[in-house]
Amino acid sequence: MYSLLSVWTPVALYFLRASATPSPHVGPLFARQIDRNDKNYYIGYHGDDFETPYAKYFNATQPTLSEEFISGLQESPYPHDLTVDISDAPKALNQPGYLELENGFSRLSDGSLSLTIHTEAPSGLTGEMLDWWFSWHTNDTRKYKLWNPGAHQYAAINPIAKEKSSQKSYSERYWNVTSFVDEYIGTTPYKLSISFFEPSLMGFSKENNESGVLGMVSAFVSLFQYEDQNIAQAKQGLGPLTAVLVHQLRRKPNGRGNEFRSRFWFGNLLVAGMSVAGGSEKLAHDLSVHCFNEMSHLGTFLPGLFEEFKMDVSVGY
Ligand SMILES: *[C@@H]1O[C@H](CO)[C@@H](O)[C@H](O)[C@H]1NC(C)=O
Ligand SMILES: *[C@@H]1O[C@H](CO)[C@@H](O)[C@H](O)[C@H]1NC(C)=O
Ligand SMILES: *[C@@H]1O[C@H](CO)[C@@H](O)[C@H](O)[C@H]1NC(C)=O
Ligand SMILES: *[C@@H]1O[C@H](CO)[C@@H](O)[C@H](O)[C@H]1NC(C)=O
């Protein structure tokens, strides 16, 4: 039953999106560097992949899901008043302590869908490392695969001007960059375009010493195709056909290490498209597990990887 849903959901959504968005512009550079042929994709490392200088950070062991996370998923969907609308999220996520829902998903009253995922991070993981990771991993599939060895298949970016890719601040190297990736979410491979934007464009704080916020990554996610996105839309918030993700890195309120609070919001038309196919809850479930795995796993290798490769500044071609 699930396999049928997971086939139909992408198909229905693809047509919904195709009818609502103009076809993406594909310039010559784009065509040269982005491999759209998923026959070339595979999960994990094979052969030569192990010869990169960072291959020693490839660790195929999957994290163990936490009890809080599992029970959050089991009890989902939650009533909408337990969750936070994207327009209230910047303020809510900036408060000390926890919100009512830190694990689980929910349909909001406007029909949008919200996912919340909580994971642990080591105390040595800093906001600087997080920014460096997002500036570094996007240009090479083998880097991207370190993050989720059981699901990631492909990653590439369009050319980035040298002035941008070698900016002093790690964040300015990846804000406004779109990462084209292919990855399994549950049993279905998805092509995604993840466009990173400066969190303050939507009102999110990147740092707040009082509430322990150490870092924040935010992006638009577009499903099923590789397309550059207009970052200016960040000022308008969540559109009916858009999806937004944020990962907040924070000191844990109990002082024992750090934590990630990840959130996804899917616009109501996007959710309606999934629901017609019966699949929005299945995708919410699978994406939550996927996110749990990668955010937990990131903390196991990022401090070491950063120490070794932080000078490897220029991502690009
Ligand atoms: C490998 O990854 C698993 C899951 O994230 C983790 O529990 C384990 O500590 C990692 N091993 C090493 C050597 O980092
Ligand atoms: C990102 O794009 C916005 C909107 O075009 C622009 O204002 C901003 O300066 C850009 N930031 C970076 C770091 O490229
Ligand atoms: C930030 O918060 C920590 C922990 O509460 C505290 O030890 C430190 O002094 C604060 N730093 C600044 C610059 O306020
Ligand atoms: C990605 O960027 C690095 C620098 O960090 C560069 O050495 C490498 O060649 C780039 N990879 C690809 C596939 O272009």
Automatic annotation (TrEMBL):
The keyword Protein transport does not apply. It holds the Pfam family DAPG_hydrolase. GO terms for molecular function: hydrolase activity; metal ion binding. Residues 1-20 form the signal peptide. Keywords: Hydrolase, Metal-binding, Signal, Zinc. Residues 86-307 form the DAPG hydrolase PhiG domain. This is DAPG hydrolase PhiG domain-containing protein. It comes from Penicillium salamii. The lineage of its organism: Eukaryota, Fungi, Dikarya, Ascomycota, Pezizomycotina.
